[in-house]
Amino acid sequence: MSETFRVLLLGGTTEARRLAGLLHGEPLHGASLDGRAIHVTTSLAGRVARPVLPPGEVRIGGFGGAEGLSRHLRAHHVDAVIDATHPFAATISRNAVLAAADAHVPLLALRRPSWVPAEGDDWHTVGSLAGAAEALAALRARRVFLTTGRTGLAAFAGLDGPWFLVRSVDAPEPPYPARMETILDRGPFTLDGERELLRRHRVDTVVTKDSGGAATAPKLTAAREAGVRVVVVRRPPAPEGICVAATPDEAVRWVRQLGG
Ligand code: NAP
Questions:
Q1: Mean pLDDT (the chain, rounded)
Q2: The pTM is what?
Q3: Number of structural domains, the chain?
Q4: How confident is the model at residue 31 (pLDDT cuts 50, 70, 90)?
Q5: What is the dihedral of CA 70, 71, 74, 76, to 10 degrees?
Q6: Rounded to 5°, angle at Cα 17 from 15 and 18
Q7: Which of 89, 125, 133, 152 is 20–30 Å from 38 (CA)?
Q8: Is the same domain home to 79 and 154?
């Protein structure tokens, strides 16, 4: 048996960073893992120029599909895979299921629960970014706070009616809407900050993916308080029939059970 229990964490989210911190090194170094220390390697896609790095080892870049990921699992003697990617990163999640089965490595998906509307919310749920663009036209939105990320801006490029406030980690590249201002920032965001942003820019509509989680939820509360409507893009279907944890702590318990 090797001296370390090797976990490959497919990351790119706040929860993945938190989980890497909980798992890497000493916390599970004990009898439950026959004395083996946990070694976490977080994998990032490489979409963000200067990512916030988690504890443990980090590798960056794609694997080359499910086959490439399966080869990686075998070559690096990975003992467990945790898919802690964003709920909209459907391709890598599907590849993780195929690769883990092929390489006979246990897989857990860490999926933060969907957001649910509260009393006073004015939500318009759509199935895609294209659906969100259609909804903006139908709702006659004038001042839109677009929080769906820089890679999906093309879906809104044809809309010349509304003015857009776009928030993204890195600067957007065309195609994007003609009438647009960009804020470069990354979560977590505060409620006071989101209130101020909606007020200062006189936003009438927020567009968001149903990302779930606490880091980017304050915009929903701020929108509710201000009577601002929200266009919510539904999640793509997640792979079924695999172990799922809703929080990093639950994922830690899953690893303990594997090692025990
Ligand atoms: P995707 O469509 O599911 O994946 C496309 C390809 O990118 C995958 O086939 C894989 O390439 C590579 N990839 C994705 N995640 C990877 C990872 N963690 N490590 C190594 N390779 C990865 O993913 P996406 O929607 O472009 O998102 C990319 C990353 O950004 C994800 O890791 C996700 O957690 C993070 N993120 C996404 C969103 C979003 O809204 N989609 C929001 C916040 C953060 P190969 O096939 O070559 O392996």
A1: 94
A2: 0.94
A3: 2
A4: very low
A5: -110
A6: 65
A7: 89
A8: no
